[in-house]
């Protein structure tokens, strides 16, 4: 019998891989890795080789003997894997640029995981993740799938609902950030606070208690409105309305700004669109710099610059999750997972993002209890939007996509919304085979992408 | 023991009263009325007298001996009433003008029952209706309350939830319109179609079947996209998206345009705001004309012009409902009523608008069964918005009002929304005693109404 | 195109058929029947011929020209049927004798629709009804199935859940009886009372209101404890406990005696078992007499004696239901039907028995609202028992059958219950092909029927 | 500010107290106790003094300086308590003897926490625990209440539902036993197994997984049917039916024998009743022996004989729970606690018994997910029985008590059940002030206790 753990990373050529390696090296004692397979597609081959060499150097500089395998053959890699992590991006950053620029062209929000962009990312990603799951059923039926491909919640829901695969956990770094910054703002240690999160990916709230068991969420709210406390810096830093937070008695996540301060977030995005370029365009530059660094044959540790890429702690969360499963550690982690009642306002069989104790059986979700009226309503409409998006991603049905668009709180329904949707279908044609019929019709109707930059990306 | 039925109409000075009278006269044989009390407030005294005289003339021209009583003393009127109808408008049409113009000033939808305006109408109306209910508990505990004051669903919910009064039914003319126009469009008789409605007031869907029991909803959808069929003319006539209707397999109500074609409905409203004036301003003119007509001592029947006032069949629906309760007729009527499971996607104890068989016990709701994913999500978020609005109306809590505003799908959250909300508080100061503290704070902060017309209404 | 309605009655040789004919003759004006097909199996051929001739005589004596067809070929009969009624009894009355005597032999309740007997009736009946539904899908996909084969609720649930056939309604005469006897007991007319039923077949409660809409259930409770009122005579007449009825504020159905007065009902059954024979044995005699009567070539109307057979009004309810569907009459009938939320304490997709307005679309269930704590608990456990029984009937799984037995409130779990179950498997071997494996095992273990009479029935 | 933890034990004169002391001494390092107050009532004064002296000796023999206070004044003790444990028994063991013997006299199960006896224990206990909670609100509003007075689940539910006190946890030793014996039976260590429990107190099931995350519940089932494995010895050792366990895929708790093998458990109880005496009578002897031991001024540690008293590990579980809360340890403990969705088949606001991670905020319940059909039905009916019992305990309503009795699966409804209930009211008259009216009526009707032993206990 082979010894040690086999890790497979789909989308292995990602700039995040060094953080993942660092996380594994740091935890080698509790997670004895035998081999790591980085998988990518033909289009990502060059990056895969650069980052793969870098990854091997990192391990070589460590006390451990771990071999990095690079491959374009997913099936070869998956054979007998223990853990599979997914961090791929269908259509690469250029697809994200389109997700952002096409809505902004029409004055609506273009964003990676929210609004129209997030929905098209789901349309592209879900068919691929379902293929991966089918491979896993054959090649590594005992493996765990640790997903951090966005939109992480919808991807996880698709895996469980349509892929019928339960050994999966969706990760996100947003809750990690909160539990790191808030103690500092309150001037206490992380272990002085007790956290309970509930909601959906990029749409959750949390409560904080002290070690006497008393709810001190209001103190965090105080800190959020105290400039010196410096809370929270993720996403564009428009403040929430204090009365709203006090009414709910919970802390929203950073992405809630898109919903609670829709106007300002849109305006900020439009300003970037019209000046420095959207977030994906900025990230592309950062990534180029990162890959230049990674090429340096002397670099054998994660460079500082990766931090500013965004998504810090994402990979670390993945490593921690894997170590918790492997070692049955019962570590508190916030994960996307089957609800099972933890959020009683949503069906027991859908995916939620909640505090869980993670061990060999996966996530043991902490039951949060019923949410207040407003948050319950938000969750229910967002879950409907997610389910419709996933259904459209699987069936390729135009009407279902339109229903999803219409119910999305960040999309103003009507002619412009439909134009945006139609252009996005055209723009992502290559990655949306399930919508082939729709796209043919739209082409026949003469729909074309209007934003010049988006139009001219591969 | 007295014989015959005593009807009390709160807001009796309304221009709708003649339609109500017509409805009662038409149904005298099954609903033998003894006396009718029209109640209004000091500010409406003149209108009350005009319409009261007109009403008496209508009865005098009928074969029936019914006495119209006019009073400003609600308690005097309510004593031993059998049925109480409510059609009052707190702040009269001027308040509605403010509800419409203040949001439009900032580029958002101003509308009587949807968006910001509908919420403030609830804030003004709910405290008054709860006072009426308290009076009824003492003065006519066996009476039925037939409400058609808007927002009719929220008002009904407030009556049941906070007023703890179950003998109430909320009415709306929208479903009546559908069941009158659709058979014509299909070239069949009304009795050839079987209807089932479910949802919330101004936010319901329906299905249609033929007398073989087969669903023919798709035929109505066909007719909606067939210009010659002439369906539906209520509200500004922007078409729904056909793919969306086919996906849901149901017919939305006219007000769904605000949600499914948000952009166009907003633009249309803004255009009216900037040109002919908002709907309330138009209605004011119609009303003035109507009252001129009503003054004519020779007029003893409902004039044709009332039809164009909007809200046709509203009063007729009320008369039909009263007759159905009185005669235990089991008439099919679409009403706002306690859910009791008819819409299983919403709590059993909230108010919904559904097809019911109305008789002596009130509404016997037809169980609709679970709705499709999108409609379920819509209902749940709208019910959350309603519950928050009602809670804010009762408690006067600013944070709760802000939460309601934020979750309302027709309000883009952020600074402008908050400005609109704050100005509306100032504009309606006289009618919002429960928010006195908030309004004092806003006044201290210097908030004032920006729209010149709204500002200068009493 | 053919004119008039085609009725098919499976189990047409039943002694009930004359009541069915009477019901159709009475309603011919609203339900113009063209032809009636009576279907039975080889073993029932003689009865079919007797009752078939009798049925034809009844029509011949009527003003209407309707042809009775007799056949053993179900498929021939089903072709183009408009309505199919099912009143068959797998294994005939001998099977019922076994269902009754085998439990009684061991001191437990033996009854047609409750306890062990009712479960085995479900095991025998459900596979056959699912075959009929498959035939209907091919031969008369537009037909309605009106079932009054017991256990009527479970059979209806199986048809919808496993047969995926929605055009079905389950009938029972128990609610009919209540609405006929209670008005008499109160000294009022039927139309003076408003009824609302909810629950499961043979396990429902109802509330009564007067035509002022006031609940007067307590008056019916009074009448039940007033000897002269003579309420209710169905089933062995042991009184309910008054305090219990007052606590629930509802009237249980007669079968609730098995659950609320378990001890007395068991003792009564045991006494009959030990003396006059069980109910089925009594019914066999009645039936023999009936068939003797039916042979009389001069008899052309339903004989009085049929009344005492039990199940009076059963067939009449079926005729009324068929007429209501055919004529889209919106008649109030209590039926077993898909819940759709009418009983919010049970899943929306299971079958319940409730007041419905029956028309062309089938049942439009009246939403009953949440039940009190005790009745909610009873319903939930009984539905679990039903679902397990149906699942066992379909899968033939022994463990599932055992779980159903164990949760059944009328079965005391343990060794004796298991013995009863095992003997019933042996006794009904011929009609339980799905349990062939289990039965073979039990035979190998030497299980045999102990009750001498049950053992010696074919 | 005072340092160290103040513990108050209501029912401090219990024979369990030495185990509690041992548990605290063992955990002194993590739970630094300052003082312990043992509270009892006048009738228990002698025992309190014996066990109090013994407790002080135990601490004196330890390295720690902890003072034991004895008092009959509950309020004095509760002042500023940190933790309150409740292990009192209203009416002492004599009341339990009555709970057991009166039902057995009539051939029904008499048992401490199940059936009629358990319900009357709830009737006696709940009013007292609610008084304690009222005291705590005033005297130690920050304290945690750790209850192990039976019926522990119902007592906890009453505290939360009617006492409106959330800082409570109900404990039971049954799950502890399972997690101690099953690993041994499988030949593995406790840490090799992952447990997940869900259900109600004395009515829960569990699943077991290995540290690969694979469900191995079936292996435990195997072990249960392997004589040598020696599983499980608690309660009278009648085996479950293997097919039933395999169908559910879960392990029932020992008390499920009362429901799954009702016949055998009843017969066993009747045999004891007729020979050696009921369990309470046996326990009385054990207790007498224990108190003799406790009197020994040289005894300063928990004697071996306490083990056979039953309820082993109960007090240890309490100490562990207190330490986990105090130290925010996130220890896995199975507790009775507010559901919050962990068992989605029951309302989110009721009390369930589930695996939880216990820390400063109390229980963080692990969401179990939906249960299979049979177990769902069982839970729902048992929760209905619990809620009715608690309601009757609070309101003193006879009809509600009768409904609770009727729905209890271990009580055969009817005349005998009513006799048992009525006699229990008479027998416990002194401790059921809320039922004074009922008891007066029963006395007037001449109801007396039939069992000679029960009748003659004070």
TrEMBL record, chains A, B, C, D:
Its cofactor is NAD(+). Keywords: Cobalt, Glycosidase, Hydrolase, Iron, Manganese, Metal-binding, NAD, Nickel. It comes from the Bacteria. GO terms for biological process: carbohydrate metabolic process. GO terms for molecular function: hydrolase activity, hydrolyzing O-glycosyl compounds; metal ion binding; oxidoreductase activity, acting on the CH-OH group of donors, NAD or NADP as acceptor. Mn(2+) binds at residues 172, 202. The record marks 112 as: Increases basicity of active site Tyr. Binds 1 NAD(+) per subunit. InterPro entries: Glyco_hydro_4 (IPR001088), Glyco_hydro_4_C (IPR022616), Lactate_DH/Glyco_Ohase_4_C (IPR015955), NAD(P)-bd_dom_sf (IPR036291). CDD domains: GH4_P_beta_glucosidase (cd05296). It holds the Pfam family Glyco_hydro_4. Residues 197-411 form the Glycosyl hydrolase family 4 C-terminal domain. SUPFAM superfamilies: LDH C-terminal domain-like, NAD(P)-binding Rossmann-fold domains. Substrate binds at residues 96, 150. PANTHER family: 6-PHOSPHO-BETA-GLUCOSIDASE, 6-PHOSPHO-BETA-GLUCOSIDASE-RELATED. Belongs to the glycosyl hydrolase 4 family. This is Glycosyl hydrolase family 4 C-terminal domain-containing protein. It comes from Trichococcus palustris. The lineage of its organism: Bacteria, Bacillati, Bacillota, Bacilli, Lactobacillales.
């Amino acid at each position: 019998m082979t010894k040690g753990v086999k890790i497979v990373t789909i989308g292995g050529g990602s700039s995040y891989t060094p953080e993942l390696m660092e996380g594994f090296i740091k935890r080698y004692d509790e997670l004895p890795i035998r081999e790591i397979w980085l998988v990518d597609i033909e289009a990502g081959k060059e990056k895969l080789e650069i980052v793969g060499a870098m990854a091997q150097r990192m391990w070589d500089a460590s006390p451990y003997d771990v071999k990095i395998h690079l491959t374009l053959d997913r099936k070869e890699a998956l054979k007998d894997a223990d853990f599979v992590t997914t961090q791929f991006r269908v259509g690469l950053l250029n697809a994200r640029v389109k997700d952002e620029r096409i809505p902004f062209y029409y004055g609506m929000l273009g964003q990676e995981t929210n609004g129209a962009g997030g929905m098209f990312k789901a349309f592209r990603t879900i068919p691929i993740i379902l293929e991966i799951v089918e491979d896993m059923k054959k090649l590594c039926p005992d493996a765990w799938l640790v997903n951090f491909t966005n939109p992480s919640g919808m991807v996880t829901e698709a895996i469980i609902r349509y892929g019928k695969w339960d050994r999966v956990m969706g990760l996100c770094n947003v809750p990690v950030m909160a539990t790191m910054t808030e103690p500092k703002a309150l001037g206490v240690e992380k272990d002085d606070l007790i956290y309970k999160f509930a909601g959906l990916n990029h749409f959750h709230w949390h409560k904080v208690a002290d070690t006497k068991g008393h709810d001190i969420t209001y103190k965090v709210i105080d800190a959020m409105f105290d400039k010196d406390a410096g809370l929270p810096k993720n996403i564009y830093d428009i403040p929430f309305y204090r009365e709203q937070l006090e009414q709910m008695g919970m802390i929203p996540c950073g992405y809630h700004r898109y919903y609670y301060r829709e106007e300002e977030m849109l305006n900020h995005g439009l300003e970037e669109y019209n000046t420095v370029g959207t977030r994906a365009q900025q990230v592309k530059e950062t990534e180029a710099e990162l890959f230049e660094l990674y090429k340096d044959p002397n670099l054998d540790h994660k460079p500082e610059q990766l931090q500013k890429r965004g998504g810090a702690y994402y990979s670390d969360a993945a490593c921690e999750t894997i170590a918790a499963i492997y070692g049955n550690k019962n570590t508190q982690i916030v994960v996307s997972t089957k609800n099972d009642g933890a959020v009683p306002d949503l069906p027991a069989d859908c995916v939620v993002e909640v505090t869980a104790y993670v061990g060999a059986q996966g996530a043991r979700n902490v039951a949060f209890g019923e949410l207040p009226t407003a948050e319950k309503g938000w969750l229910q409409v967002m879950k409907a939007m997610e389910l419709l998006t996933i259904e459209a991603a699987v069936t390729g049905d135009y009407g279902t996509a339109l229903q999803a668009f219409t119910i999305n709180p960040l999309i103003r329904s009507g002619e412009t919304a439909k134009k945006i949707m139609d252009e996005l279908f055209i723009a992502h044609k290559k990655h949306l085979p399930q919508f082939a019929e729709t796209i043919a019709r739209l082409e026949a109707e003469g729909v074309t992408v209007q934003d010049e930059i988006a139009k001219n990306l591969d």
